[in-house]
Structure formats: structure tokens, C-alpha cells
């Protein structure tokens, strides 16, 4: 799946989630793109669900970037990210609670 490093773009949603988890990022969008590109080059890539790929951060292996990969165009869009593990900056119970609120009819 790895190989030539694609052009990396980052959504606003991914930037916001990154800022919640990684303090002190001056330009979060550029930092995410650089981290994803380095991880891609290192082969820290695995298939995801629904035509996505997961890229694991090399410096913070608990952070996983969920990306849409447009192979013909050589583009990778970081759609969102999450943390794994029990010591997450934003515990999973909070993100799960938000998901439940969105599913309930209002």
C-alpha cells in the first residue's frame, strides 16, 4: 500500500481533533501532513473500512489517521484521527457519547 508518498491534504475536522490531542501545534494542518507523509514513507499504513487507509503516527503510535486515498491522482486526504489506548487525551467515552447524541432523533 505504501510506495510513492502521495500529496497529503487535511480536513478541518482532522485539524480540530489533532489540536484536542496534541498541544502546542503552531500550524496543525502542516504538522499533520508532515507526520502522515513520514509515516506513509515508513510503511506505517494499513487498510481501513469503507475505502479508507489508516496511517499510524511514528512519534505518537497511539494516534491513527483515517485517510481517503485517491490512488490515480496520488492524493491522500486525512479525514479524521483517533487515539488508541487507555491514556488518551480525549477518552473514548467522550467521543462515543457524542456519537450516541447524533444518532438519537431530536
Explain the overall architecture.
This protein is α+β, with helices and mostly antiparallel strands. It has one domain (7-103): RelE-like (YaeB-like fold), CATH 3.30.2310. The protein contains three helices and five strands, in the order E-H-H-E-E-E-E-H. Residues 94-99 have low confidence and may be disordered.
Secondary structure tally, helices: 3
Task: Note the gap between the termini.
Answer: 41 Å
Write out the CATH superfamily name: RelE-like
- Computed over alpha carbons, the radius of gyration is 14 Å
- How much of the polypeptide forms β-strand, as a percent range? 25-35%
Mean pLDDT equals 85
Major sheet: arrangement of strands: 1-5-4-3-2
CATH architecture: 2-Layer Sandwich
Q: What's the β-strand tally?
A: 5
Low-confidence stretches: 94-99
Assembly level: single chain
The tally of domains stands at: 1
Based on helices, strands and strand pairing, what is the structural class? alpha+beta
Mass-distribution shape? globular
Amino acid at each position: 500500500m505504501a510506495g510513492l508518498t502521495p500529496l497529503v491534504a487535511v480536513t478541518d475536522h482532522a485539524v480540530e481533533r489533532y489540536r484536542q490531542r496534541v498541544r502546542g501545534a503552531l500550524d496543525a494542518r502542516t504538522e499533520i501532513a508532515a507526520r502522515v507523509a513520514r509515516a506513509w514513507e515508513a510503511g506505517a499504513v494499513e487498510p481501513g473500512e469503507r475505502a479508507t487507509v489508516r496511517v499510524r503516527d511514528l512519534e505518537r503510535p497511539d494516534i491513527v489517521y483515517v485517510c481517503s486515498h485517491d490512488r490515480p491522482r496520488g492524493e491522500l486526504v486525512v479525514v479524521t484521527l483517533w487515539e488508541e489506548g487507555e491514556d488518551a487525551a480525549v477518552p473514548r467515552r467522550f467521543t462515543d457519547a457524542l456519537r450516541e447524541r447524533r444518532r438519537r432523533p431530536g
